[in-house]
Amino acid sequence: GATIGVLGGGQLGRMLSIAAAQLGYRCHIYAPEEAPPAADVSAAVTQGDYGDGDALRRFAAQVDVVTYEFENIETGPVLELAEVVTVRPSIGALQVAQDRLSEKDFVSGLGGRPAPYRAVSSRAELDEALGEIGTPAILKTRRFGYDGKGQARIMSRADADAAWAATGGQPAMLEGFVSFEREFSILLARSVDGQVVIWDAPDNEHKSGILDRSTVPAGPLIRAQAAEAGELARAVAAALDYVGVLTLEFFASENGPVFNEMAPRVHNSGHWTIEGARTSQFENHIRAVCGLPLGAVDLVAARVEMVNLIGGDVHDWLTTLADPNAHLHLYGKGEARPGRKMGHVTRLEF
Ligand code: ATP
Ligand code: MG
Ligand code: MG
């Protein structure tokens, strides 16, 4: 089998490697960490920074195709990589999705409806943006944020100084606060020849800005909005000539689906698909980047629930292991720091 290069070595890379191995492929991980979670289950690992052009070229020479499980990387050196090896999804998708401002502009252009937003690149612009958008609002760095990092809530204008300090004066955007009922995501996979599959939309609950739980099928409100959101995701994928798994996050509001952000990769809210769908997000991503047809994505149970195991949480392992419908996943990370995703549990109900 061919060798798939993966930029990023976290738990998403780990689960991609496992899915690739089942199909007879090898994964070669490229990551800055010394012993990333994906390393123990992958055929090869190159340790290097995402900005290290030489190391990236050596990596590219050893793989047949490159994909990524982490979008917060400098595109410059990766752009060069794309000249010598096929990168899927394309660098264009990576560029759009790694900047909150460009992803909102892009998705709005295709008919998506985000919360009101304004670019903010100085303290004075934050005041102007607050004048237009009002409060409550959220200031978010345009790049490098995840799990709610790089965000500050502004409940009244008195919070503006603190918010500006909290985001470190980085290029940012101000976004109106959405009073939503539920949150959900659209997980889509698109093949090289344009075949598209969309899994059932999970209902996502967050705690402290971190995904806590995903449940499928979602309730009636989300189910009523998933078709419109899915059409938007299809349009985004088509416009980017996307190959692989693409995730769009939404708020289900009284006025329909509000687009939050997109991720050009497999996603935490799709972990339930490993046991809960006929083909997992990881397998379909591997199939797509390797040019294979996609697998069916129907639910295999009446209900599926995925709960994250976050560092510091107490978890009753024995109860999980004794439950015949529960599946325990641990990512092999050493230290359980607060807020760190250590594993997850998926429970099926038939
Ligand atoms: P991820 O780990 O999903 O990449 P992130 O750091 O990119 O997260 P967001 O998805 O922008 O951050 O926000 C994290 C969570 O904060 C959202 O899932 C939602 O619960 C809440 N949130 C973000 N933006 C808004 C908003 N405009 N109005 C209300 N809640 C919001
Ligand atoms: Mg994000
Ligand atoms: Mg998010």
Automatic annotation (TrEMBL):
Domain ATP-grasp: residue ranges: 104-290
Xref: SUPFAM superfamilies: Glutathione synthetase ATP-binding domain-like (SSF56059), PreATP-grasp domain (SSF52440), Rudiment single hybrid motif (SSF51246)
EC assignment: 6.3.4.18
Pathway: Purine metabolism; IMP biosynthesis via de novo pathway; 5-amino-1-(5-phospho-D-ribosyl)imidazole-4-carboxylate from 5-amino-1-(5-phospho-D-ribosyl)imidazole (N5-CAIR route): step 1/2
Signal peptide stretch: none
GO annotation terms (biological process): 'de novo' IMP biosynthetic process
Gene Ontology CC, one term: cytosol
Top EC class of this enzyme: ligase
Gene Ontology molecular function: any one: metal ion binding
Matches recorded under Pfam families: ATP-grasp (PF02222), PurK_C (PF17769), RS_preATP-grasp-like (PF22660)
Keyword Nucleotide-binding: yes
Positions of ATP binding: 100, 140, 145-151, 175-178, 183, 206, 260-261
Matches recorded under InterPro entries: ATP-grasp, ATP-grasp_carboxylate-amine, ATP_grasp_subdomain_1, PreATP-grasp_dom_sf, PurK, PurK_C, PurT/PurK_preATP-grasp, Rudment_hybrid_motif
Keywords recorded for this protein, A-Z: ATP-binding, Ligase, Nucleotide-binding, Purine biosynthesis
Domain of life of the native organism: Bacteria
Catalysed transformations (reactions): 5-amino-1-(5-phospho-beta-D-ribosyl)imidazole + hydrogencarbonate + ATP = 5-carboxyamino-1-(5-phospho-D-ribosyl)imidazole + ADP + phosphate + 2 H(+)
PANTHER family assigned: PHOSPHORIBOSYLAMINOIMIDAZOLE CARBOXYLASE (PTHR11609:SF5), PURINE BIOSYNTHESIS PROTEIN 6/7, PUR6/7 (PTHR11609)
Protein's job: Catalyzes the ATP-dependent conversion of 5-aminoimidazole ribonucleotide (AIR) and HCO(3)- to N5-carboxyaminoimidazole ribonucleotide (N5-CAIR).
UniProt record similarity statement: Belongs to the PurK/PurT family.
Complex formation: Homodimer.
Name of the molecule in the record: N5-carboxyaminoimidazole ribonucleotide synthase
Organism placement in taxonomy: Bacteria, Pseudomonadati, Pseudomonadota, Alphaproteobacteria, Sphingomonadales
Gene name as annotated: purK
